[in-house]
Amino acid sequence: MAVTDSRTPGALRPTSSDNETGLMDPLRQWISELIGLRLDLVRASWRPKPGTQPALKTDWCALALKSLDTTPAYLDGRKGDPSLPLSGDQTSVVHEDYEFVLSFYGPRALFLAQRFRDAAQIGQNRSLLRQTGLTLKAIDSQAMRLPDLVCETWVDRYDMTFHVARKVSRTYGVRTIVGADVDFYTERGKL
Question: 92, 127, 160, 171: most buried by Cβ count inside 10 Å?
């Protein structure tokens, strides 16, 4: 896909962007480190092909994106220099707030939910998350007990909700108008 700027007709697409990478992998890694579960036991929920569920007596958790709230974008523009053909970019900046649900399963489900809640609030652990471009915005203090019926057996499940935020910037190639091959006419004639 060719980079477009305002010198070409059509819609403008970003010429560059930052912090647009996926959310699930960095969050799964962070959660795995906080609660001490192997990464393969911190699973993404609602996958097209969920795979085999861990055994009933295995501790594991599932991470689900519940909602996204975005602040209105603000533009950070630069006045272009007519002598530089690529000057005058505009950057669109939005702040995204993601709500996640983390479901814990297994014999130590409640313990793992409590461990996550407490460990996520430690400054050093929060700084690990910030290194990925994400910030822990809020974590619910309540762990909801929502048992699941699996193979005619009730399995404990505890859900915790938390919010993660990030700033996303996208730069668009808006160029300065240097000149145009047009004629202007008024009641008195051509200008």
Answer: 160
Closest CA to 44 of 21, 61, 30, 59: 61
Q: Which amino acid is at 32?
A: S
At residue 185, what are phi and psi to the nearest 5 degrees?
Answer: -120, 140
3 vs 15, 18, 173, CA distance in Å? Answer: 6, 16, 9
Q: Angle 100-106-111 (CA atoms, 0-180°, nearest 5)? A: 70
For 190, residues 6+ apart whose C-beta sits below 8 A from its C-beta are 183, 184
